[in-house]
Amino acid sequence: MDSSSSVKIVSKSFVKPKTIPEESKQPYYLSPWDYAMLSVQYIQKGLLFHKPPLDSIDTLLEKLKDSLAVTLVHFYPLAGRLSSLTTENPKSYSVFVDCNDSPGAGFIYATSDLCVEDIVGAKYVPSIVQSFFDHHKAVNHDGHTMSLLSVQVTELVDGIFIGLSMNHAMGDGTAFWKFFTAWSEIFQGQESNKNNDLCLKNPPVLKRYIPEGYGPLFSLPYSHPDEFIRTYESPILKERMFCFSSETIRLLKTKVNQICGTTSISSFQSLTAVIWRCITRARRLPLDRETSCRVAADNRGRMYPPLHKDYFGNCLSALRTAAKAGELLENDLGFAALKVHQAVAEHTSEKVSQMIDQWLKSPYIYHIDRLFEPMSVMMGSSPRFNKYGCEFGMGKGVTLRSGYAHKFDGKVSAYPGREGGGSIDLEVCLVPEFMEALESDEEFMSLVSL
Questions:
Q1: Coiled-coil stretches, from where to where (predicted)?
Q2: Running DSSP on this structure, what letter comes out for residue 401?
C-alpha cells in the first residue's frame, strides 16, 4: 500500500425517511442508559465488499439511498438531531431527539486508490481505514449539530466499503447491527421487488425504556455541556485482526470446562479468559498489580420484566472482574475463565435494577479515560451479531473493520468469523510494545488461524 494513498470525498448529502411517521412530530425521549453515553464517541463499524459488476457507481448509490430512506421510516429518530432544555437555577440539562426540521441522516460518497488486498492483506489495520467513516472523533453530544447517523460509501479500485457512524446515545451495538441488518434487508427486498410494502421481518421497538414513576424527560445536574463533555484522544496503537477457527473455539471451550469441572462456561468466556491472560503476560506487569477484564453484556433479557429483543436503544453493561497479575498467570486458564464466568452469572435482573436506581439518584456520564482502568482488557461488540448477513446485493462481505472511536490500549472487539460455524475474529488494540509481545506469546498464537 502506497503511503500516499488517500480517501477523497466526492459528494455529501442527506437522506430523510421516505414517509414521515406521525409520531416523529413529537419529541423522542432518551433513557438513563442513553444519557450516560453523551460524552463517548459514535459507533463506527463497516463492511468491505468485492466490487460487483456495475454499469455505474451512481446506480448503486441511488439504490443505497432509496433503501436507506425506507429504512429510516422504521428508525425515524436516526434522522433527527439532539436538542436540549437547560436551566441555571437549579442547574438542569435535559436532552431529547427533535425529528422536525432536520436535514436527515448523512450520506457520503468517497473514492480511494486502495485495493481490497491493501485492507485484508495488511498485518495491522491501516490507519487510513479511519477515513472510511464520517464523524471522526465526534462525541455523541455533537448530535445537536451533526447527523445522528451517517453512511459513507467508499469506492476502492476493486471494492466497496460501507461504513456506518451511529450516535451511541441512540443505541448500543445490538441496536446498531439491528439497523444495519434492516437496511440490507430492505435493499435486498427492493432488488427482488418483494419489499414494496416497507415491512421488516423484525421491526425495531422504538419506545424507550423509562423507569416507572420517572421521566419521560430526565435531567443532568448541569447547565452547560462544558461541565460534563470531554473529548478523548486515543494513544498511538497497533490494531490487528486475529482469527480463531470454529474448531479451535470448540476445543478451547471443551478444555476450559474440563479444567473447571463444569459445562457452563461459554466459548466467548473461554476466549476472553485467554486474551485477558495473554495481554496481561505481554504487559509484564508486577505480580501484585491488579488487572481487570470487562465484558459487554446485553441487558434486554436480564430486565424484569425483560425488554423486547428488538428494543432499539442502549441496554448494556460492562461487567467487571479483576485479579492480581500473579494470580492470573500462575494459575491455569480455568482460574481466569471462572472469574469471567462468575461476573456474567452474577449479573442478574437485581443487579441491573440497582444500576438504574443508582443513575436515577445520581445521574452520571461515561468518560472513556475514567471508565476503563489502565492495564485493563475490555471485550466489546459480540460474535453473535449477524454482521455478515448484511450484503446489499454484493454477496458476503470480505471483512469487517471499525473506525477511530473507542480505541485504547487493551480494547478488543469480537466479530463473527467470516467462515461462520462459531468462528470468531478479534480486533485487538494495543500500544506497539505490548502488541509485539502478544505476537510472541505461544499460548495465544497457537490458537490463531494464520
A1: none
A2: E
